[in-house]
């Protein structure tokens, strides 16, 4: 199996989640170790004080999740993150660093490089309480998602792909999605000649930095969506962190309508309202993409889009950080293809017409 967690459990789902803690602070390593081991569902399998030490240890130790600081001697956690991920053999990385403040560029950079999640590290003496509760929740959520992935996807039926030229591309993602988005958009042609909508589960403070980085990878303009904005060709509009990004018909033209009502998924922003509104306005010319993410957000909207004649593409399990959202639409028989992000890009371009490859 491709996931370290799956291989480490070998049929016994009650085994603890194996962790590696990488932090140059002896106190931080000790406090984090006591915190996670006190829960009973985790085992600290390795400790390291540098990123280089972590890579050496991963040659002989198999873990499920790595807690990684960014400020350390040597090359540091962010620069070494790609090498750590290569050495980790499928283990997830959660950044726990004082640099990972809301809105910080380093946070989005770490997520774009492949970190599953980030958390700001509190000062010594403040590791308990809310920090402990949130960190253990993230660890358990990642562990539970991987346990569910042990039951491998057996190949749900795929729907026929629509044939009408695409007039709108809508992409939804959550945990692990920023990395997948970077891969997909980097592989797209420079011109698709359609508006592009993106809903990524992130707090509002991250969105400006996220949009800027996404625009760089996509080689086109990207901005955080505002009410009343027109949907324009090859402009990426990103859902703000405090509202759903939807499409409204104003005199026959598509414009942005931000919606803050509760969504069935409980997410804000949610992929469901975005896909539902694309279905209502674009019908069979709408194309949705569901990338890595926990839970089932996007399932209801995908069903609405398919019913209207549109199509859904889903990221495959092997390349997902968490195969939750793509699995939901795949198992429901809504996907026309289940592929890695770079291959999804080729399918998207094929729906845009031959001119997109010129």
TrEMBL record:
Q: Which comment does the entry carry about domains? A: Contains a C-terminal catalytic domain, and an N-terminal region which modulates catalytic activity.
- Note the HAMAP family from the entry: CheB_chemtxs
Residues annotated as catalytic: 174, 201, 297
Q: Where does it localize?
A: Cytoplasm
Q: Does the keyword Methyltransferase apply?
A: yes
Which sequence positions carry the modification called 4-aspartylphosphate? Answer: 69
State the similarity comment: Belongs to the CheB family.
The catalytic activity, as recorded, is:
L-glutaminyl-[protein] + H2O = L-glutamyl-[protein] + NH4(+); [protein]-L-glutamate 5-O-methyl ester + H2O = L-glutamyl-[protein] + methanol + H(+)
Q: Which Pfam families match?
A: CheB_methylest, Response_reg
Q: Can you give the residue ranges of the Response regulatory domain?
A: 18-136
This chain's source organism reads: Sphingomonas arvum
CDD domains noted in UniProt = CheB_Rec, REC_CheB-like
Q: How is it modified post-translationally?
A: Phosphorylated by CheA. Phosphorylation of the N-terminal regulatory domain activates the methylesterase activity.
Q: Look up keyword Glycoprotein and say if it applies.
A: no
Q: Name one GO molecular function term.
A: protein-glutamate methylesterase activity
Q: What is this protein called?
A: Protein-glutamate methylesterase/protein-glutamine glutaminase
Its Enzyme Commission number(s) read 3.1.1.61, 3.5.1.44
Question: Could you tell me the Gene Ontology terms of the biological process aspect for this record?
Answer: methylation
């Amino acid at each position: 199996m491709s996931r370290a967690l799956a291989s480490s459990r070998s049929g016994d789902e009650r085994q603890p989640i194996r962790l590696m803690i990488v932090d140059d602070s002896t106190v931080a390593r000790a406090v984090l170790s006591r915190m996670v081991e006190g829960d009973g569902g985790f085992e600290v399998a390795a400790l390291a004080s540098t990123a280089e030490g972590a890579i050496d240890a991963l040659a002989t130790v198999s873990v499920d999740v790595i807690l990684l600081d960014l400020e350390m001697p040597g090359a540091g956690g962010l620069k070494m993150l790609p090498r750590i991920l290569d050495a980790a053999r499928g283990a997830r990385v959660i950044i726990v660093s004082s640099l990972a403040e809301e809105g910080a560029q380093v946070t989005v950079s770490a997520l774009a490089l492949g970190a599953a999640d980030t958390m700001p590290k509190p000062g010594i003496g403040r590791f308990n309480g809310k920090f402990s509760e949130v960190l253990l929740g993230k660890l358990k959520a990642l562990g539970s998602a991987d346990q569910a992935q042990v039951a491998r996807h057996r190949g749900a039926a795929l729907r026929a792909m629509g044939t009408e030229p695409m007039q709108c591309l809508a992409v939804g993602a959550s945990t692990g999605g920023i990395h997948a988005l970077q891969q997909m958009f980097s592989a797209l042609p420079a011109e698709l000649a359609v508006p592009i909508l993106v809903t990524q589960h992130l707090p509002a403070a991250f969105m400006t930095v996220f949009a800027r980085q996404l625009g760089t990878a996509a080689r086109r303009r990207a901005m955080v969506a505002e009410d009343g904005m027109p949907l324009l060709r090859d402009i990426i509009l990103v859902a703000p962190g405090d509202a759903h990004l939807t499409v409204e018909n104003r005199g026959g033209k598509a414009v942005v309508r931000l919606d803050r009502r509760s969504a069935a998924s409980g997410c804000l922003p949610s992929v469901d309202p975005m896909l539902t509104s694309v279905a209502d306005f674009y019908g069979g010319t709408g194309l949705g993409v569901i990338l890595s993410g926990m839970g089932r957000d996007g399932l209801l909207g995908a069903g609405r889009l398919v019913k209207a004649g549109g199509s859904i593409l889903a990221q495959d399990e092997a390349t997902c950080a968490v195969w939750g959202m793509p699995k939901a639409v795949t198992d429901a028989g809504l996907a026309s293809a289940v592929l890695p992000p770079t291959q999804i890009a080729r399918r998207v371009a094929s729906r845009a017409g031959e001119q997109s490859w010129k």
